Amino acid sequence: MNSLQSQGFAPIVSHLKKDGxxxxxxxxxxxxxxxxxxxxxxxxxxxNWVLWVIYAVGLPILxxxxxxxxxxxxxxxxxxxxxxxxxxxxxxxxxxxxxGFMMGTxxxxxxxxxxxxxxxxxxxxxxxxxxxxxxxxxxDLGQPWRLIYPMFVxxxxxAVLFLVxxxxxxxxxxxxxxxxxxxxEWMNFxxxxxxxxxxxxxxxxxxxxxxxxxxxxxxxxxxxxxxxxHPLWYSSSFQWFQFFVSAVFAGLSMLxxxxxxxxxxxxWRCDETYLxxxxxxxxxxxxxxxxxxxxYLVIRIIGxxxxxxxxxxxxxxxxxxxxxxxxxxxxxxIFYTMAVRNSNASLARFSAFLAxxxxxxxxxxxxxxxxxxxLYQEIPHWREVVIVVTVYATYIVVxxxxxxxxxxxxxxxxxx
Amino acid sequence: xxxxxxxxxxxxxLAGGAAIAAVGTSKHAEAAGSFGGYPDSMGVLxxxxxxxGCRTCEAACxxxxxxxxxxxxxxxxxxxxxxxxxxxxxRTTEKAYTVVQKYDVPGREHPLFRKVQCNHCxxxxxxxxxxxxxxxxxxxxxxxxxxxxxxGCRTCMVACPFYIPAYSYSxxxxxxxxxxxxxxxxxxxxxxxxxxxxxxxxxVMTFGKxxxxxxxxxxxxxxKPGAYVDHVYGETEVGGTAWMYLSDVxxxxxxxxxxxxxxPIISYVKEFLTIVPMVLTIWPALFTGFHxxxxxxxxxxxxxxxx
Lengths: 416, 307
Description:
heterodimer, A: mainly alpha, Formate dehydrogenase/DMSO reductase fold, 17 helices, 0% strand, B: alpha+beta, Alpha-Beta Plaits, 2 domains, three-stranded mixed sheet, two-stranded antiparallel sheet, 35% helix, 13% strand
């Protein structure tokens, strides 16, 4: 599409065509191209070739999971009840999607209107991350059709997962509402946008409450397993806070990552405001992320001091812990700080990739790698890995499709 | 949960007053988590020194619970040599709610056999972690599981400190948690001991009120000095369990986790649970306040232009 733009293609930015007539929904869906042109573009894109391979292998296995059961795609471990589906799909995807409430808070609550060009990308990153976390959960649950049981059929309100279920559900609706304006502009429903504008502060505050609690609750889930998670990754007092604070830098870093990727691969869809402001805003996000990182680093150290886990640092697990802390926390912290001081957006972007990696490593360490550290190491079944890749690929496909159409990376021009 | 309780109350024919008191305490337990167990709950005392590893208990359990036929017959001693991942001894599975493990203890004349099944905690981690309330601790002491509401999140398996619940992963349509229920439906409810206890030819297990069993256990330890380790495993572990063990070999040498502590698992989760209402009540005012503060200048400007 980038090359098409250099040949003079102009993407849709308003309801009206050049000749003054209105775009139909079908034309909007096809990005203003004729069906033939549209499919030609899709076929030319090498990334799509990769996706087809993933789907050719992954879709049959995904279908097989629902026909033959979890036993067919996982090792059916009784000792490791949770595998990659939750380790990656829930525990990693959700913190990486904290950008939604971060951007809502920055722009709507603190009134930092200068972050407006990134607000919708942050919200979309949040919405899709949560949506696909639920998809991953649906793959993992033994009886996914009972997903609503904790809401309406049999309630266990004292359980941490009960809170997660309710919060993720309400927060998903909250995020859908926050993105209604983008959809309303694109579909030409001005009333819907007006309505959301009236309740946006309420939505934002609700987003903060729900995010604080469910991001923390994902950590608190592991406090049910005090002897199973390695002491360096476990803290019954601070686990929830560690998960919450790391979600803050993870959400901001993920936003830098996706904004960078869209600048590289979807430049045709970004407008001038977005492209001109991006470096400055990236540094703004970097500042926030570095504050969260230093808070996180300190609370991890306090967690170790509180439980007096120092002796574990001298073990092999201690070395692995140091690797996570240095590569995933301390280096991004240093790079972010340098980037902010020297106004170096590229360094901030590099640091963001590192911080996202560090977050993923932390969640996988807690949920899988150091889990049952006194027993043995579970290596996920290959089919489990294939399904994770397939669902994640779908996440990317949906993400890309929305970015290409709705006014996320560009500003919609209203009819005069 | 309420319905189930009422049914068991009527069928079990318990004294009304005691049942009401029990309902009261159970609710209290879920909210606050400091529940010492039902006063007259039943339990089993397992004397590991008496077990010869005949696996009659496994066979009795299989029959009583209508479980599928085992891969190897119950008189085949080769199962003791079977190892699961990590070189660990075999554990409870979806097809076996109880298994006997063999431990070769240096200096001991015979190997030590250890029977593993659900310990039926006073305050079970599986119960407190379940978000659909599928678990229930009956006043008789059994930890029951309701497969009709289970979503299959398997948090109970993560939470169980004894690695007991298994899951029927092989089923695509109706996978459920599989674990010992102390033969509640068929025996415990009518005051009878679980099938494994009754079947044991060596009288390894004693069925009775938990508080009486505790007295008996300590009596045995003091009657025969040196014959037992001076500890009743399960008396205090994770808040106490209905199944308790006596051994002549230190418990950490025969696969028991001796670092579980005396607190029920839920007590580790409480630090988070207490912040939930605080966030819910404080955050709205706090952040709306932040909003008003950070938009102060703009609001003032608006007022100026109005007047």
